[in-house]
Amino acid sequence: xxxxxxxxxxxxxxxxxxxxxxxxxxxxxxxxxxxxxxxxxxxxxxxxxxxxxxxxxxxxxxxxxxxxxxxxxxxxxxxxxxxxxxxxxxxxxxxxxxxxxxxxxxxxxxxxxxxxxxxxxxxxxxxxxxxxxxxxxxxxxxxxxxxxxxxxxxxxxxxxxxxxxxxxxxxxxxxxxxxxxxxxxxxxxxxxxxxxxxxxxxxxxxxxxxxxxxxxxxxxxxxxxxxxxxxxxxxxxxxxxxxxxxxxxxxxxxxxxxxxxxxxxxxxxxxxxxxxxxxxxxxxxxxxxxxxxxxxxxxxxxxxxxxxxxxxxxxxxxxxxxxxxxxxxxxxxxxxxxxxxxxxxxxxxxxxxxxxxxxxxxxxxxxxxxxxxxxxxxxxxxxxxxxxxxxxxxxxxxxxxxxxxxxxxxxxxxxxxxxxxxxxxxxxxxxxxxxxxxxxxxxxxxxxxxxxxxxxxxxxxxxxxxxxxxxxxxxxxxxxxxxxxxxxxxxxxxxxxxxxxxxxxxxxxxxxxxxxxxxxxxxxxxxxxxxxxxxxxxxxxxxxxxxxxxxxxxxxxxxxxxxxxxxxxxxxxxxxxxxxxxxxxxxx
Length: 588
What we know:
By secondary structure, this protein is an alpha/beta fold. It has 17 helices and 29 strands. It has a ten-stranded mixed beta sheet with strand order 1-22-2-19-18-3-6-8-7-17. Strands 23-26-27-28-29 form a five-stranded mixed beta sheet.
């Protein structure tokens, strides 16, 4: 039965026995209700409530840094902490910069795989799907902001939430940005202990930030019918120049000269003239590709199809295990590196490498904020063997020591080299750097002290944002100081962080005399009133780019953080033995 929403609104407004706030809440629900789409009851999340009062930051754990002798080695990042906190921090450092996101979120099977507010969500929970949707909605909305214009997100899921996830992503990323629903054959053998179907696949939902075309796949091997080799060693096969069937047009019916001088026309088929595949002009241009064969019925003209001209093919939505790996190969891979099996259903690096092959460029930034065992970083380093410098960012919590003992340890060994349980030595992928961070917090109240604390703690965020970590001890003639100024520089990339405004005049004098090459000096300056001292830097304006802190960070955060709850003002009660306050005393 169709309901007249306006009539219902009128009746609610006339109801008696409801407070003004209760009527307002009911009317809000009526007016916001969708005609079509996914609707669920939003369930509060503890981490979201914390973010109402605190701002997340990232602090580097320097003893976990893994260096590289290669000057152009990418800086990969592992962030230990709740992924909503980390995503908020990344909303400042990486908004619009991420080219590929791959995530393997909890599947919400009801079998202790999904934790919400420190409790497992079981299959009997009445709000099981609402909790999962609330959880994913917050994170995917920030993920969309992080994607670049050419960005693509891949999300692994199974039947428990696939339908809900599809509707949620249609809403967040928009339905016309849906690229496909991939079926990944995750097992190489069926289960025999099931009563119904044996499930051998997962799904991977794929969405783009905008209009994105995935790369096509180059042929992995030359088909058997390329069975001839020319005098240059190139493989080819022959295809008849004559087309069977009717005479298509006059331009395709003409005579060509065979090796013995015979003029050959296309043969008739069922009383109809045949034709050549090519026009006479194209035939003359491609004559070096023509190969003649003389048979019982005379000469036939053929042209060579070379293997080095094989056409890349579009990616299929079905990915078999023998092409991209299975959970069995993933378990073996993980146990070979960390020598323990801590995940029931890890993903193989070959699966993620395939994703990066079709969706990334050689300098892309990859993000996985459900990092688990760290497969995505492992895959990125493998994929970089193609000469790329892809950078990978992983986010995971440290429940049961997973981040430190598995995610980090696995990738440390991949970089430095390791020995498998069978004693086989595996060389390290040493052209990579790895940095490790933990989330921290600064109070959200807008006080001068909190502003200064945020700017002081934000240095690690700025290094990540600029991908610049080489700190210098001097800026020109001046020594740097952690409470006054810090200077980072590599090649033509420079960043100056000014914590104390009283030094600006001296710094401007120094900048005037310095040469920054082809780039500009990025100056982050503490400015609680949002003014980045543009006038003070005016005479060196062509050498600098100014950013006011902490405003730049706070503005980025407030686009994704939950709104703060207003603090209620409470009147102080007067003790019985005290004089009653006057109206003037109440508001003094």
